[in-house]
Amino acid sequence: xKIGSMKKIVSLQRNFFxxxxxxxxxxxxxxxxxxxxxLKKNEPLLxxxxxxxxxxxxxxxxxxxxxxxxxxxxxxRINIFQWARKQKVSTGILNFPASSYIxxxxxxVCLVIGAxxxxxxxxxxxxxxxxxxxxxxxxxxxxxxxxxxAAMTKIVKENFDPAFFTVVEGGVEETQELLKQKFDKIxxxxxxxxxxxxxxxxxxxxxxxxxxxxxxxxxxxTESCDLKVSVKRLVWGKFLNSGQTCIAPxxxxxxxxxxxxxxxxxxxxxxxxxxxxENDNYLQxxxxxxFERLTKxxxxxxxxxxxxxxxxxxxxxxxxMQNVTMDDAVMQEEIFGPxxxxxxxxxxxxxxxxxxSLPKPLSCYLFTKSSSIKKKILKEISFGGGAINETVMHxxxxxxxxxGVGHSGIGNYHGEAGFKTFxxxxxxxxxxxxxDPSIRYYPHTPFRFKLMYWFMKF
Length: 458
Known about the structure:
Blueprint: H1 6-17, H2 25-41, H3 43-54, H4 58-83, E1 87-89, E2 99-106, E3 109-113, H5 121-132, E4 136-140, H6 146-159, E5 165-167, H7 172-179, E6 185-189, H8 192-203, E7 209-212, E8 218-221, H9 227-239, E9 251-255, H10 259-272, H11 288-295, E10 303-305, E11 309-310, E12 315-316, E13 319-321, E14 339-345, H12 348-356, E15 363-367, H13 371-380, E16 385-388, E17 402-403, E18 409-410, E19 412-413, H14 415-421, E20 423-430, H15 446-455
Parallel strand pairs: 3-4, 3-6, 4-5, 6-7, 8-9, 8-15, 9-14, 13-14, 15-16
Antiparallel strand pairs: 1-2, 2-20, 7-18, 10-13, 11-12, 17-19
Helix pairs in contact: 2-4, 3-4, 3-6, 4-5, 4-14, 5-14, 9-10
């Protein structure tokens, strides 16, 4: 899309929103059904595109992207009448005999900026929530996986009126031009650095923003954990998508007493899970710049296992680094790749202090059998969401709002939380005229003050 036409498409969508068609719940359900059918019909195209972009297999594409979208659509279509219902609330004696209620209403024209690491899921999931809430949507997918962006554009333009839902392809220039437009909501998924740019641009128009960012998500391994199961789940969560997952365990804090056992088990588990291009169990790094960024983090003398790289295929072997300190390069930024730094601690307070010395993470994972440690971690570490004795899978439960806190994000979505993210809750008091006590009107008198004092205590 040409830059000059972006203002036109926003205007087109705003005019369509003013027709109030999107406020019809049956219209919303129909659009969601259309999206479901379009994705299903084009599964071969979606599989082929993402494999060509960074070797994501059909298995991984379905399980980590498409299946989650199908689930989101089905859930939204089933629950939309409940989510959008007018909610009655109490009024209180001061406003008797009025009634009070809250009306969920769509915000308007929404911009969704997707991310490259799960290009379908992180683009369409917010779109599903926005449509369910009754908005029009402009989707800006990441330009890095070019074929998936093209596939999404093709599917949307073949199945939707651009006045309701359309896609804008392009890079930084196109995104900057979009951010100059007036939207009623902006939803961004990506890095904290770019999130700040989006937030600043939105502030010019006082546009509400949801930012799904990232950060250094810790995994804490205690001496009481089931080590074999813990490591199996940790290795899977870390190296899924070649570590290019915003909620992947970014680093591990292991109790000093089990450090060597942990390292041996982690190496064994990586080997057993067969992370290799040949069997489609492993992805490429998305591009050369990210490949170079990751390889600079590797310190040869600290590599316990892995470290093999191939610039031509953008391959980085699943790598474990030991004897890592908080000052090492690998601890200075979110890794977003298949490198697992291992740090040790002596006491749980020490582990908590290390986590809290960094900005609040998007996720936190704890592996333990100790109830007291569970309570302590949940009380003393602030994070967006996470799991105990598991990694990553909390994202699959739509009853758990997904989002960050502080530097890892603003706002959340998934399930009803996604509907709420794209909704304004309009408060209304409805009062009849058959009773109109004079107590609140002028002139004020001591008697009226006494009555008001009494009424306002309730």
